[in-house]
Amino acid sequence: MTENDLEKLLETLTLEEKVGQLIQLSGDFFTDDTALAVGPQRKLGIDPAMVGLAGSVLNVVGAEKTHEIQASYLAKSRHKIPLLFMADIIYGCKTIFPIPLGFSSSWDPALVNQCYRMTAREARAMGVHVSFAPALDLARDARWGRCLESTGEDPWLQSQYARAVVTGLQESGDLAHEGIASCIKHFAGYGAVESGREYNTVNMGERHLREMYFPPFRAAVNAGCELVMPSFNVIDDVPSTANTWLLKDVLRDEWGFDGVIISDYAAIRELVTHGVASDDAGAAESALEAGVDIDMKTACYANNLCRLVRMGKVSEELVDRACLRVLRLKNKLGLFEDPYRDTSRDVESACCLTTENRALARRMAEESLVLLENKADILPLDKATLRNVALIGPYAENHDLLGLWAVHGDASDAPTLGTALREVLGDRMTCAQGCPILVDESGLGSFGHRSVSSEEKTKEELARLREEALDAARSADVVIVALGEHPLQSGEAGSKTDLRLPQIQRDLLHDVHALGKSVIVLVFSGRPPVLTDIREDCDALIEAWFPGTEGARAVSDVLFGRVNPSARITMSFPYATGQEPLYYNAFTTGRPQKTSTHTERFTSRYVDCPTDPLYPFGYGLSYHHCRYGELRLSTQKLSPEGELTASLSVRNTSSRAGDEVVQLYIRDVTGSVVRPMKELKGFRRIHLEPGEECLVTFTITERMLRFWRRDMSFGSEPGAFELMVGRNSSDVQVARFELLETR
Ligand code: BGC
Fold it and tell me: Pocket of ligand 1, candidates 185, 263, 265, 450: which has the most ligand atoms within 8 Å of its Cβ, to mutate?
């Protein structure tokens, strides 16, 4: 349809029909079974007359189901405007790859892009039109469970991933024929909830928002994302869902975003709970006025907008504009031509969980596994000489490797570690659980269809599990201990105040280590856990995240050296929970611990814990070893229109080929406002054969040095800069240069 056709269609709609387009309900509202439909209707308190007009569906996935709902809806609809199906397809649809915090450790946006293309094909085949991804919340506080969904603590790196995901999902941009639409979220500042507690207050100045939290969103808008979801939190004491400055002034007017804004789940109604609206009508009015087009899962728009327009409290033009945006999106997706977008059961089974998709997920997982420790180069294991391996721990024979947000994936499609290792070792392996993930799951709460186990083990059972594992360890030459968080301990509403692994697992590891065997620890988690004591009790340590459908095989590839690990963490790992929020691109303070002239007592530090992280941003080991040559600059004076080249040689000094991630950081030494100690400005992922040397160069221009200055203009300031290149954010060489004044 042309824009003109859409406008004409809009003119033919009644006010109720227009408002209907602005309502999103879950699948249970669209069933033909009256009993079922009445239940959710009552629960939501929604006007039954509006239910039949609702224009979009939440989290119904599957060719058959979506087809059925669409067909029965269209049969009853006067205008035959097809339904939009939106779903949380966060890191894979049926074939699940590692959680975003995991895949970001690959420093490989091109591979991430391929994974999202694959995901879009699967989701499209399953009848999905829009995915609520990517989550672009900068994550600097590991207590916050949703750091699982983030690509880490750095805005520049996250912007690279934002582009990779959006263009992956939306493929060529021709959404009628390829891909699905991307809804970026949660705009904005959500990762900075106070004390890491989910849905909590965010307190942050505009400069910091613009400097650190906005860039990934801006990058995604520039990459053409079709939708934006505001966050649950407040910005300057106004919830994002009603925040006119955020949604209108910044997103629409300054950035030129003209796509659909959809509220987060029940967020419009929560304006009343927040205390900025006295009732649902007030909430509807302020959300629409701020620019929210679709109301997800509340009755606020449905029950109030028509009345508010008729009373003259809300202008009909606002409803028209929102409705037109929704119609445009439906049109872009090709729904008016084919409401089913060519989906069928056959297409679905031909597209999903294919051998190629599994192979891609395995590659992504291989690139996401971070080798944190490898004392005396104990890894990789030589499968030829191993006589007996003990695989113990609660993740030894566990399918639950998908993480919390893989809501449409199936854990039974993921082989367990035991299965993957048996493929290599055959019967030279003994498996034992050792202990449950948690002794008591009761505080976790349920999430969707996931619920906690009510079965608690007796003391005797726990002792038996432990003894079995220790027996297996005693007769093994190597012990692999698979530990981790419960999947419900991270993801949405998975905030924690203690980032250590559960005590029962730490005790098990301690006892295994005391046997004097070689111990390799694998950690499965949705965040950077505290591994301070774990690393003392092992010879090698791998952060495996929740690695997805092929995660177990990827772990096996790394353990036995078929793959040389190359991942580098994108969130700092703390020594202790009390260090959070902890991130590398922080300010020095006036009294930095290492360089202050004050006595140690009066510096910015803890009296009971290091200030630095246990593992810094950008850190990760590989099986090869590299020597970094001397860092050289082409000039020490950069003119605003010129370029500066930083170069250094990197040589693989080992007999193993591998990938190295060479990282570039810059610090603006003096500015009109305080600048971070260092900021990532680029990286090169290079492949080096044994003995090979490569010259790595970075080009620096004035554009890369811009920031939000004291007067809130965006630009650079002349003066001294430090340029740092190295293998992670703390192991760097430093050179200085000066940015000259504009002539
Ligand atoms: C989450 C969103 C998600 C939505 C729909 C909310 O609770 O915050 O990230 O997209 O639910 O499932």
Answer: 265
